[in-house]
Amino acid sequence: MAGKARHACFLGCNKRNALYGVCIIAAKCRWLLRSTRAKIFSAGSIGRLVMVIEHYNSEVFMTQFPIVKRFVYHVIYYRALHKQYSERQFQNEFWTLTIDAHLLQAVVHWCMIFGSDGTNPTHWKHLSTSQSSQLEQTFRDGLFRGAYINQEEWNRYWKEMKHFRDNYAAHRALNNLCTPPHLDMALKVAYFYDDWIREVISPHTFDEPPLKEFATILLGPTSALARRLFDATKVQ
Q: Which of 28, 31, 82, 231 has the maximum number of C-beta atoms within 10 A of its C-beta?
């Protein structure tokens, strides 16, 4: 985490900030129904998996996806700002708290979808109640193939993210200075979810570019903005 400050802040959402767009994704989703038949889930590049999904909870999905996208926002913002902060060797409380806030929010948002399914109504497992076991199998098998990890590695990383969320980001254990988790795997999970969910809801579609493509596009202007902001910061 940046510097020594370890306090998270709440980032509001209004029409003047970039995250406003995330909050209206659900309102802009356009469903293009091409068939009323049961959907055949063919994972393609995700993995050789076939299943039939007759129903999915559109309300859960329309809440899930903006959360995953907001996670990507926070990771890109965190990395762009942290890079400038580290290279310039700043000691600035404002930037320390701002950078830490993006990291903490990234972990919290990731855990809303991929953390504990029992306490998160937005968890990916809640997309279908009638075929939850089949849905879970396709997700795990596809993730392990796509991210080149096994069950043991996934369990270890999942516990690391959840521990940081439970003991530092969302709650605070006494005398507990957790080591921030690396977010490369968290991003891989988010990108896989993006590919996977498009297959799950097919033949329905929505007007959003792939998250991996979106993150690449976002990084350029974000990095440029971060440089200008740090150039304008007076070192004290």
A: 82
- AA identity, residue 157: Y
Does any domain span residue 141? yes
Please give the span between the terminal C-alpha atoms of the chain, in angstroms, as a whole number: 20
H/E segment holding residue 147: helix 132-147
Phi-psi region of 177 (alpha: psi -120 to 50; beta: other; left: phi over 0): beta
Total number of domains constituting the chain: 1
Domain span at 111:
20-24+37-231
Torsion-angle region of 120 (φ positive above 0: left; ψ -120 to 50: alpha; else: beta): beta
∠ Cα 132 138 139 (to 5°): 85
What does pTM read for this prediction? 0.77
The one-letter amino acid code at 152 reads E
